[in-house]
Design brief:
heterodimer; A: 109 residues; alpha+beta; Arc Repressor Mutant, subunit A; three-stranded antiparallel beta sheet; globular; B: 908 residues; six-stranded mixed beta barrel; 53% helix
Chain lengths: 109, 908
């Protein structure tokens, strides 16, 4: 099975989008969710996920609280904030603009 | 506004750091566990699953660090870690640390101290409005008064000329005048019985407005105070005098002060930072020039066009350049001089006017004789302390190199564990910085103590100069900068070296790390440069010390030992320049001479190094060549020659027969006798002060031996002595020759003076020897300090040599063991090591000698009686260094020769 690295700059977008859909998730669930929704094409490296989450906490895009998993383990659950929702819109429109631009370049070529 | 919330969250992380660390760790632990379960679900054994999960997860510690990076506090955390770790390493080797910190403290402290003095004397701008717009007429290199018609670059000006310039110029926003001589007058504050010293400066009414200095209390002077001679007895008090004498009592405005027989009203107080316009002088009172005659009856400059005694300071109009102003001023100067020369000037006068000119100079940093006197010494000393600091840096760099070698395994292990090189370098530099900052803090403490010592050394009298050398923000910034540069200087190379390792070699075994040869080469280069620098400093110190010795051995022509010196101020208590004053002088001389232990006592105008009163003299039928008819005059009492120990060669000195009624007499010195009366005996011949019409006025009655009058360096010059009984005026100097220590009779002399007139102010009690010593204050300062720093440099270089050789001997222990096992004797081994030391020292000296020869051209202005390539110094300094280097190296060399071959061989 071939897995692709996530294109740089889009990790925040993916995490925000995942949280916007699924409510409260912990880190492992976020990674899994992205992998599943991308039909196993995108794999989230732990080495990128946790720094990103820490940065998003500082930026105030997400908030976190401790809860208990189904397996009765303590886990930190992340949730989107209003600020995060706004950021998601910004990231989506930015992404769209870039993708369209790239598409145009590829098609004319 | 988002950044405020972000900052809040960041701060929260900082405050709850530990909790955030725990949370992150737990979260990542869970992630890894869940991964492991996933692998088990996929059919792996638990053990395999564990490894697979760990592999996928990567370096957990690294991951955690990267995540923490996002909090934005890593730099702080690392700094704290490095400081903590650095402190621990420093405390682990306290001896090394103490040596390093102390030599840094001395180095940085010396730099700070010299810089603070340099700043106060040479660099700081006057604390007035826009000091850059202020210009001085002339260069301020003269003080006093002259009545010569201006015929070259002019420095002193008359009051009428000041008024002309003020009226006619088109380039200045304001013009002010300052009397070039400050008065150490005495006066009484109303309601206080005692008379006290009050330094007064006479200034024009425009002085404060031109400078832009506003009072903190009352008012300053106005032009209206400076209109009618004698009509404005007002004074502005300096802030420091107000603080010192009135305890900042706001009631000072309106208080009366009596100086001489005039009562002045204090009208205001200046701001604290304003000390006047001359660096190193701080007047207590500023009084308008209109009161000149009241302060000093002999001075009548207000209406005399040729009584030139003022400095003129002016503020340029905005957008007027110095050259424009200069052109305008010189044009006016020539016009005014033409008027002064009268309707039909002689060709001589016209030539004079042609040559006369005024050079404008910037006075942004104030006037200062001090600056001229101490600029060279201070620059030299700044270089000296800079070199000392460099030597200290070289030492510390060597210590750190040695320590880096001892730590290379630790560093290799840390690099293997994933520490980035930049991180390690940063840590090593933090340690250096810590060392430098501790040194800097101690240095500031050292400097604030040393500053007072320095100030006392540059002061001319027993009172320290009023210079502000306190530690201020500027100085702290300087010290911090120096510490920072120092840390980079001694820390960078060792840090780069220490972290440049070939890991496998270093990890394999501790011995013989790669690059050891290069490292010891670097260490040797550092020691060689230390020796070279030390040599330069030693040569400098030698030259200055020998100059000082030469100065001290100059034949002064008088005997400076056992003479007490006091300052009297009869004008302050109402004496006029008349017969009563002469009687007072005589009575004081008689009373004091009668004291036990006193051999002679005399009043005089000057003793030594107090300036001079020089005029042209005329001798009937004698046309002297060139300038040789310029003669310095002194006004003295009958006991003057006995008091100073100046031998009488021919004729007589003064006696009771010389009165205002009798013929005017003078004693001349050998040079004057030779120049003015070349043929026959000068006794009974006549001369006069001034032009040929006076040539018959004064009869020569005696000839005394030549002496130095103003400076130890001066060449013999013609001088005459006039008895005060025939030339009555205010005289301040009183000198008493004692049979023993002059300080012992000081209080008896003061009592005797008080018996004559208990109001008469007595000040400036010192000895003639001290006065002579003070006249070479700049040479003394440079000699003492350069000797001190030269020795310090040699000492530091010794530590460097000792450290290097100890380290080398330890590293070569088994080589030495092999040599000895093969039959080398102890003496051979001793010489093996000593030879290396001497070679290093010799190399340093070889480099240092040309450097010293080149540098010494700069110092020749401070040398006396020897040239800058003085062979004695040039031979002694290297010899001293070689001996000292040998001593420093002997201990490690001896240790090497005591090596037991068996122990040494087993050592590996």
């Amino acid at each position: 099975m071939h897995q692709d690295e996530i294109p740089p700059g889009t990790l925040y977008l993916l995490i925000l989008r995942t949280l916007a859909r699924g409510g409260e998730l912990h880190g492992y669930e976020i990674a899994n969710s992205i992998q599943r929704l991308s039909e196993d094409v995108l794999r989230v490296e732990e080495g990128s996920l946790y720094p990103a989450l820490q940065r998003m906490l500082i930026k105030g895009w997400v908030k976190a609280k401790w809860g208990v998993t189904a397996g009765n383990r303590r886990a930190r659950y992340y949730q989107l904030t209003a600020l995060g929702r706004k950021q998601l819109e910004i990231e989506v429109s930015q992404f769209d603009r870039v993708i369209q631009a790239i598409t145009r370049v590829i098609q004319t070529a | 506004m988002a950044w405020i919330g972000e900052l809040g969250r960041r701060l929260l992380v900082l405050v709850r750091r530990n909790q955030y660390h725990r949370d992150l760790k737990e979260e990542m632990c869970l992630h890894r566990d869940l991964k492991q379960q996933e692998q088990i679900g996929a059919g792996l054994s638990p053990e395999e699953a564990y490894f697979a999960a760990s592999r996928q997860f990567g370096n957990a510690t690294f991951l955690k660090e990267v995540s923490q990076d996002m909090w934005g506090w890593n730099w702080l955390e690392h700094l704290m870690q490095d400081l903590h770790y650095g402190t621990r390493t420093m405390l682990r080797s306290p001896g090394l640390t103490i040596v390093a910190v102390l030599s840094l403290a001395l180095g940085i402290g010396a730099n700070t101290a010299i810089f603070s003095l340099m700043d106060a004397v040479m660099l700081r701008a006057l604390p007035v409005e826009e000091p850059g717009q202020l210009v001085l007429f002339g260069d301020g290199r003269a003080a006093g008064s002259t009545d010569d018609f201006p015929d070259s670059t002019t420095r002193l000006f008359s009051y009428p000329f000041y008024r002309e310039i003020q009226k006619k110029n088109q380039v200045f926003a304001g013009v002010a005048a300052i009397l070039s001589i400050p008065f150490g007058t005495h006066g009484t504050v109303e309601g206080r019985g005692s008379i006290e010293q009050m330094n007064t400066e006479l200034v024009s009414g425009t002085y404060f407005s031109v400078l832009g200095v506003n009072p903190v209390l009352g008012r300053t002077l106005a032009d209206a105070d400076d209109q009618t001679p004698g009509a404005s007895p007002v004074a502005v008090a300096s802030n420091s005098w107000w603080k010192r004498r009135f305890g900042r009592d706001p009631g000072i405005v309106g208080r009366k002060v009596t100086i001489g027989s005039t009562v002045y009203t204090i009208v205001g107080v200046t701001p604290a930072e304003f000390f006047g316009t001359t660096v190193g002088q701080s007047p207590d009172l500023w009084i308008p020039l209109s009161m000149e005659k009241q302060i000093s009856p002999g001075w009548n400059g207000l209406d005399n066009k040729f009584f030139q005694s003022l400095y003129i300071v002016a503020r340029l109009k905005p957008a007027v350049r110095m050259e424009q102003a200069g052109a305008n001023v010189n044009l006016l100067f020539k016009q005014v001089l033409h008027e002064y020369a009268g309707p039909a000037p002689s060709q001589q006068r016209l030539d004079d006017i042609q040559r006369a000119r005024i050079d404008l100079t910037s006075v942004a940093r104030g006037l200062s004789r001090l600056r001229r006197q101490f600029s060279d010494p201070l620059e030299i000393l700044m270089t000296v302390v800079g070199l000392v600091l460099l030597i200290a840096c070289a030492n510390i760099a060597n210590l750190l190199l040695a320590r880096a070698t001892a730590r290379h395994r630790e560093i290799a292990v840390r690099q293997a564990l994933g520490a980035r090189r930049s991180r390690l370098i940063r840590q090593l530099l933090t340690e250096s910085l810590l060392l430098a900052l501790v040194g800097g803090v101690l240095g500031v403490a050292f400097a604030s103590w040393a500053d007072h010592l320095l100030l006392a050394m540059v002061s001319r009298g027993p009172e320290p100069l009023p210079l502000d050398v306190s530690i201020d923000a500027r100085l702290l910034a300087f010290t911090f900068g120096v510490s920072l540069v120092t840390a980079l200087l001694f820390g960078t190379v060792p840090a780069l070296r220490a972290t440049r390792l070939t890991l496998t070699n270093s990890l394999k075994e501790g011995r013989g790390p790669v690059g050891a040869a290069a490292r010891s080469l670097l260490a040797k280069a550092l020691v060689v440069s230390q020796v070279a620098f030390s040599l330069v400093l030693l040569v400098g110190a030698g030259l200055f010390l020998r100059s000082l010795v030469n100065l001290n051995h100059v034949d002064t022509g008088f005997n400076k030992e056992n003479v007490l010196r006091l300052q009297l101020d009869p004008g302050a208590v109402g004496y006029k320049e008349d017969a009563r004053l002469a009687a007072l002088y005589q009575e004081i001389e008689q009373h004091v001479s009668a004291l036990p232990g006193v051999r002679a006592a005399s009043i005089s105008f000057f003793t030594f190094n107090e300036g001079s009163w020089t005029t042209h003299v005329s001798v009937q039928g004698y046309a002297p060549p060139g300038n040789s008819r310029e003669v310095s005059h002194n006004i003295v009492g009958a006991g003057y020659f006995a008091s100073l120990g100046i031998p009488l060669l021919v004729g007589r000195t003064f006696g009771p027969q010389d009165t205002t009624a009798s013929a005017k007499v003078a004693v001349v010195n050998e040079t004057m006798a030779r120049q003015l009366f070349p043929a026959g005996s000068p006794i009974g011949r006549h001369f006069g002060i001034g032009g040929p019409e006076h040539a018959n006025e004064i009869e020569v009655v005696g000839v005394v031996k030549d002496a130095k009058y103003d400076s130890l360096k001066e060449h013999p010059q013609p001088a005459d002595f006039i008895p005060y009984s025939q030339h009555i005026q205010y005289l301040g100097d009183f000198e008493v020759r004692s049979s023993g220590d002059p300080k012992m009779i000081a209080s008896a002399v003061r009592r005797a003076i008080a018996e004559v007139d208990h109001n008469l102010p007595v000040s400036g009690v010192t000895t003639l020897a001290e006065q002579v010593g003070r006249s070479v204050a700049s040479q003394r300062l440079v000699a003492r300090l350069s000797a001190f720093f030269g020795l310090l440099a040699v000492f530091l270089a010794c530590i460097g040599i000792y450290g290097l050789m100890s380290y080398a001997v330890t590293r070569r222990t088994n080589e030495i063991g092999i040599r000895m096992a093969l039959g080398a004797g102890r003496a051979n081994v001793l010489w093996l090591v000593m030879g290396e030391i001497l070679a290093l020292a010799a190399l340093g000296i070889t480099i240092g000698v040309p450097a010293a020869l080149a540098g010494d051209r700069v110092v020749s202005s401070l040398l006396f009686g020897l040239s800058s390539n003085d062979p004695v110094t040039m031979l002694t300094a290297p010899a001293i260094l070689l001996v000292v280097a040998a001593l420093a190296g002997y201990l490690p060399a001896r240790r090497a020769s005591k090596v037991d071959p068996m122990v040494a061989l087993r050592y590996e």
